[in-house]
Specification:
The chain has about 190 residues and is mostly helical. It has helices at about 10-15, 20-30, 30-50, 75-95, 110-120, 125-190.
Length: about 190
């Protein structure tokens, strides 16, 4: 019987009809995966019933904690620290670039030696010329592929770099706006006092 035809959850919860329960019981005896799943369900149920019952709180009171917390630092120290961290991240990102993978090398001498050892003396010159042409073509194709991969990788990295620079600029603008709001609030606060 197919596992998808068995309602294992309905059997576990006692919601399956009698005919389906009998089919599920016989299937669980034969199918190790379904037996394991049923055992996991039983373990979860046991863990849930073993958890202690706790009464829900009737009301929640929010109070202001008066503790020996250090006074807040001036706003300009946090702004300077944020700007310094952001600048360091931008410089690090702009200067770090992964190295391009080297192009695969072809050992022409080993290939020629292998081919010439197996050929007749009369065909040697023609084969050497054909092998040289084939090797040159293979190297050209490999170099072209490597150059295309390098160019595509550079384009992708430059696009990612541009995207990150735009995101950083918007973050800087947001931080600048927040600092201006803090300055205005601080100035208003000082005027009131």
């Amino acid at each position: 019987m197919n596992c998808s035809n068995i309602d294992l959850k309905g059997y576990f919860l006692g919601e399956a009809p009698l005919a389906d329960r009998a089919a599920a019981e016989s299937h669980v005896r034969e199918c190790a995966a379904c037996a394991s799943e049923l055992e996991r369900m039983r373990t979860v149920r046991s863990a849930l019933f073993a958890a202690p019952e706790e009464e829900m709180p009737r009301r929640i009171v929010f109070t202001e904690a008066k503790s020996a917390v250090a006074p807040a630092q001036p706003w300009w120290k946090w702004t300077f620290a944020s700007a310094a961290m952001l600048s360091a991240a931008m410089v690090a990102h702009a200067t770090w670039r992964p190295a391009a993978a080297p192009a695969p090398t072809v050992d022409v001498a080993a290939i020629e030696a292998s081919v010439t050892a197996k050929l007749q003396p009369g065909l040697d010159q023609q084969v050497r010329q054909a092998v040289s042409t084939a090797v040159a073509d293979a190297e050209t194709r490999a170099n072209d592929r490597a150059m295309k991969l390098v160019a595509a990788t550079e384009r992708r990295l430059n696009e990612e770099h541009r995207t990150e620079v735009v995101a950083l600029q918007s973050n800087i603008e947001l931080l600048t706006k927040r600092v201006n709001v803090w300055r205005t609030t601080a100035a208003n606060y000082e005027v009131r006092q």
